[in-house]
UniProtKB/TrEMBL annotation:
Protein name, per record: Uncharacterized protein
Matching PROSITE patterns: HTH_MYB, MYB_LIKE
Cellular component aspect of the GO annotation: nucleus
UniProt keywords, alphabetically: DNA-binding, Nucleus, Repeat, Transcription, Transcription regulation
Organism expressing this protein natively: Hibiscus trionum (Flower of an hour)
The organism's taxonomic lineage, starting at the top: Eukaryota, Viridiplantae, Streptophyta, Embryophyta, Tracheophyta
Length: 262
DNA sequence: AATGTATCCAACCGCAATACG
DNA sequence: TCGTATTGCGGTTGGATACAT
């Protein structure tokens, strides 16, 4: 026995909602709550499936929704959350009160993506966009990787005759946002003073609070702390100024930072 | 004014996760 | 523990509107 469809499709309305339907849905939910979405349309006198009702309510009719375009601040939030979370629109939406995942997803696809591309940033990876020449190079590197992987597989097969599943080889995952590890963060030696370096670090997302003295010169090894206003995460920075070579910035936290922040 | 093209976004679809008996 | 129902999520579509020719 197969799974029953979520709703009986025959005779149900599809497409744009009328004002009358909206009214019925709002009135019903405000007096009874939504309860079981599957049962709701019948109880509310609507010729829609429960799923359609849920979507209409959560994306459009909920009284706590903000309408209108996203503010500059909200856009920045979306960009930096996307760098951390990828296309997890509902997670991103949960950090923006009054905004829905659908709304953010739409805004991302129609506005932010273009904006980032114009700025020379790849909206997928949040890294600088590659020139045609760099793309060619990368394809070359990828092919090399593929070839070496193939030869590794073949060698393994030849050596012990065991089955080698290439899907289990941890080469890369396109699903993951590239993250920067503490040991990857280097400051160029041309960066002669720490105050400049600390100013540069203000490119951290806007909702990170900076210590009031963060623009002052730091000598020797110093510690700095950053907090996300939402309590989303916090970072401790250890700045090592002792060395003449490239300065090192160490981050002590439970996770890594998206590369787009650097 | 008419037609074609681009853009926007609400709504839909299918799959995955979770709840429940 | 398992199978089914329900809900949530992300990708995609299609109609309305704006803009260009």
């Amino acid at each position: 026995m197969g799974r029953k469809p979520c709703c009986e499709k025959v005779g149900l309305k599809k497409g744009a909602w009328s004002g009358e339907e909206d009214k019925k849905l709002i009135t019903f939910i405000l007096t009874n709550g939504h309860g079981c979405w599957r049962a709701l349309p019948k109880l509310a006198g609507l010729l829609r499936c429960g799923k359609s009702c849920r979507l209409r309510w959560t994306n459009y009719l909920r009284p706590d929704l903000k309408r209108g375009l996203l503010s500059e601040y909200e856009e920045q939030m979306v960009i930096h959350l996307h760098a951390q979370l990828g296309n997890r629109w509902s997670k991103i939406a949960s950090h923006l009160p009054g905004r829905t995942d659908n709304e953010i997803k739409s805004h991302w696809n129609t506005h932010i993506k273009k904006k980032l591309r114009k700025m020379g940033i790849d909206p997928l990876t949040h890294n600088p966009l590659l020139t045609a020449e760099e793309q060619k190079k990368q394809v070359g590197i990828f092919k090399e990787t593929e070839t070496s992987l193939e030869s590794t597989i073949n060698e393994a097969k030849e050596e012990d005759g065991t089955l080698f599943d290439p899907n289990n080889v941890d080469v890369f995952c396109i699903d993951e946002v590239p993250l920067i590890q503490p040991h990857e963060i280097l400051l160029p030696s041309s960066c002669t003073n720490s105050s400049k370096f600390l100013q540069d670090l203000h490119y951290f997302p806007a909702d990170f609070e900076w210590p009031s003295d963060s623009t002052t010169t730091v000598t020797g090894s110093s510690n700095l702390s950053l907090w996300d206003i939402d309590g989303f995460s916090s970072w401790d920075l250890l700045i090592n100024n002792d060395d003449d070579s490239d300065r090192k910035l160490a981050l002590h936290s439970s996770s890594s930072l998206p590369k787009t922040w650097f």
